[in-house]
Amino acid sequence: MQQRWQKKKKHFPLISLLFFVFIAFSIFWSESNIRVIHQHQARNGQKQRQNASLLSSTPSHSFNLSNKPPVGLDKFTTCASTVRYSGRRAVSAVLWEESGGRRAVSEVESCDFFSGKWIFDNVSYPLYNESQCPYMSDQLACHKHGRQDLGYQFWRWQPRNCNMKRWDAVEMWDKLRGKRLMFVGDSLNRGQWISMLCLMESVIPRDKQSITPNSELTIFRAENYNATIEFLWAPLLVESNSDDAVDHRMNERILRPDAILRHSSRWEQADILVFNSYLWWRQGPVKLLWSNDESGACEEITGLGGMELAMETWADWVASHVDPLKKKVFFVTMSPTHLGKYEWEAGSEGNCYNEKKPIDDERYWGTGSDLPTMRMVEKRLARVSSKVTVLNITQLSEYRKDGHPTIYRKFWEPLEPEKKSNPASYSDCIHWCLPGVPDVWNELLFQFL
Ligand SMILES: *[C@@H]1O[C@H](CO)[C@@H](O)[C@H](O)[C@H]1NC(C)=O
Ligand SMILES: *[C@@H]1O[C@H](CO)[C@@H](O)[C@H](O)[C@H]1NC(C)=O
Ligand SMILES: *[C@@H]1O[C@H](CO)[C@@H](O)[C@H](O)[C@H]1NC(C)=O
Ligand SMILES: *[C@@H]1O[C@H](CO)[C@@H](O)[C@H](O)[C@H]1NC(C)=O
Ligand SMILES: *[C@@H]1O[C@H](CO)[C@@H](O)[C@H](O)[C@H]1NC(C)=O
Ligand SMILES: *[C@@H]1O[C@H](CO)[C@@H](O)[C@H](O)[C@H]1NC(C)=O
After folding, report:
1. Residue 93 has what pLDDT?
2. Is the pLDDT assigned to residue 61 strictly greater than 70?
């Protein structure tokens, strides 16, 4: 089901409308998840927990798991019961660990691209024009949605001890010729994918570019390079009840910590893979439903514990399936949030709303970037260090409190007057405006290809 974006708009207005409604819904569902994060992390939780049944478009339904073999999780999956986590691990991951995954032999990197500072540069930036990118998302198009201070578009990342190669879309396409580049992860990773499309599309003639409708796997194709830039929705990496790209707002997160095939079968043919996973693990405990457990009983585990099991399974896949001469794999570290202004300005209220400049304290690190998670990720990645390149965007993005959409994005729920009168109360301090910070993540990716 390929379609030409432009042509479709002109000739098939109804289908095009449906497509946009589809996208709107998908972003709405992501948004409802983000609200949960907001609520979870809000310091003095004035906000009410949302009534999840209002957000669910489908009646809840339970498989009789005691009768059926596990056929894969979906949004209808429920736990027959829940017990505490038993300490169990995925078998292959355990074996692999016992056989002693190789320790990181850290290559002498000529440059640490990830430490440095932001330099105001309104000559070279932004790298594209928000209103001219046909793939722009209403969740990220801040200027379109009323943001007047455009300073956030003009910052260049300057590593401390070296320079980055200048962004060049044609050179990037040459690297991608005949290849599939796939982003896999959550809505932050989707933002990076959209940034990449906007960075890349302008040099492809309109009749040579096409995109498939938004779904679990969305594919942008550039015919003249026989190349694709794709996004696979897999917020928890492993199989889960939140894998539906549109309807993934679940009351509880249920995952199969030992099952990755459903996703890996879709990504294994890609030549360049860019993974992320983080914020979805920050919303409280998750439930594990092991593949061979026929009782349907779930084990409850902390988000961090669940993420570690998922990372083990993922790293196990990488260790056994990735030939670094044929496939490049990247892991993007956690994307910071700016939910509490007191963190960079002691004693103040509010959040990232109305922030116009990056933080210039080089040691700044916010509480949204969980250090135990970072240490766990580091440990898991060290075992596959010869096969995975880390895009360590956390510190550099920490500085960019000015880069979030705040109120300047599309909100699909009507805003109550009390909220409207208090913009900070509904500001999005999680995603990033485009053009903006994710463009730099992609420039970093460009350095390593
Ligand atoms: C959520 O809404 C449903 C009706 O849509 C209602 O039956 C239920 O009690 C509500 N739950 C809470 C926690 O407010
Ligand atoms: C579910 O499984 C139990 C136990 O095998 C059985 O007694 C019950 O009838 C099943 N329910 C349905 C709806 O199939
Ligand atoms: C860049 O910023 C400087 C200082 O704010 C301003 O004087 C100049 O006009 C700007 N240039 C462009 C091209 O926007
Ligand atoms: C972006 O494109 C719009 C529409 O073509 C144009 O009005 C605007 O000046 C452009 N902005 C920049 C910064 O080039
Ligand atoms: C296009 O790229 C695919 C790999 O993504 C390759 O299998 C195919 O042979 C290529 N086609 C042409 C015409 O080069
Ligand atoms: C990323 O960089 C931070 C310092 O900014 C460091 O503490 C952390 O260990 C790094 N993470 C990984 C996975 O390399």
Report:
1. 55
2. no
- DSSP letter at 57? S
Looking at residue 13, its pLDDT comes to 52
Tell me what the pLDDT averaged over the chain comes to.
Answer: 83
What is the span of the domain harbouring residue 112?
13-448
178 CA: nearest ligand 5 atom: 2
- CATH number, position 416: 3.40.50.1110
Question: Of all helices (H) and strands (E), which one includes residue 301?
Answer: strand 297-301
64 Cα–ligand 2 center, Å: 6
Are 436 and 392 in contact by the 8 Å Cβ rule? The answer is no
Check whether 418 has a pLDDT greater than 50: yes
Residue of 26, 30, 32, 187 marked active site: 187
Domain tally, the chain:
1
Annotation says 186 is catalytic: no
User: pLDDT, tens digit, for every residue of 71-82?
Assistant: 578 888 888 888
Q: 337 or 70, which is more confident?
A: 337
Predicted confidence (pLDDT) at residue 69 exceeds the cutoff of 60? no
- Does residue 235 contact residue 26 with C-beta atoms inside 8 Å? no
Radius of gyration of the chain (CA): 21
On whether residue 2 sits in a domain, the answer given is no
User: Of all atoms in ligand 6, which is nearest to the CA of residue 392?
Assistant: 1
Model confidence at 10, pLDDT cuts 50, 70, 90, reads: very low
Q: What residues flank ligand 4, with Cβ below 6 Å?
A: 129, 131-132
Q: Is residue 108 part of a domain?
A: yes
Alpha carbon of 193 to ligand 4 centroid (Å): 22
Got the DSSP string for 128-153?
S-GGG-TT--TTT-TTTTT----GGG
Q: In this structure, is residue 91 part of a structural domain?
A: yes
Residue 268 in any domain: the answer is yes
255: tokens are 């995952």
431 is catalytic: yes
At 318, phi and psi to the nearest 5?
Answer: -60, -45
Closest ligand 1 atom to residue 54 Cα is: 5
